[in-house]
Amino acid sequence: MKTILFGGSFDPIHNGHIQLLQAFEEVIQPDRIVLMPAYVSPFKQGRTVTDASHRLAMCRLAFRERSDVIVSDWELRRQGASYTYQTLEMLAESVGNGTIYLITGADMFLSIDRWRCPSVIFRHAVIGSIPRNQDDIRILQQKADYLHAVGARTLLLDTAVMTVSSTEIRQKLRTGDSIASLVPESVAQYIHTHQLYQELPDDNGIL
After folding, report:
1. Of 163, 182, 49, 34, which Cα lies nearest the Cα of 107?
2. Superfamily for domain range 2-163
3. Which of 83, 88, 178, 183 has the fewest CB within 10 Å, making it most exposed?
4. Three-state DSSP class for 199?
5. Is residue 161 very low, low, confident or very high in pLDDT (cuts 50, 70, 90)?
6. What gap in Å lies between CA 162 and CA 183, rounded to an integer?
7. Cβ distance 88 to 102 under 8 Å?
8. Taking residues 110-130, what's their average pLDDT?
9. Rounded to an integer, what distance in angstroms lies between the CA atom of residue 140 and that of residue 156?
10. What does the domain layout of the chain look like in residue ranges?
11. For 46-56, what is each residue's pLDDT tens digit?
């Protein structure tokens, strides 16, 4: 069994997240995809994050027509800082001899050896990422070479995906700009209905 694990704050989930996932899906051909909203990212502690119930609902709306995508609330129910190694240990129990592919953005890929218990992450998952631009390709490959030397497995794709951040979307919402091209329609409607992102500070830096 091949499983893709894609985690993040998803505040909100957007088309860049979806395109990133689709790019790996085409290459890996997974048996299942697990989308895992974090309760609190270890990198975002002390910063304001939208309530977990809203972030979970938006993720489920974004993939409501995909029966093969499991939007898991496991990290949300655990609460506290969401450490990837713990999530991977949990998934590994259900995968058995299968392979888990942990999908990350470029910034996260470059720092993954400094995450909590990196050896556990490397044991349980292949680490995948995509460059944001041509300049990133060389940097990511150098990092992949280093990670291989310390026991990690990696998968880098040279594929163009939408460059957008959740921070950018939140800023557009506060200034009244359209986000129609940046998020699924169902997510945009949810944000409007619940009047989200009206008063959050600009410096959350949430992916």
Report:
1. 163
2. HUPs (3.40.50.620)
3. 178
4. coil
5. confident
6. 11
7. yes
8. 97
9. 8
10. 2-163
11. 567 899 999 99
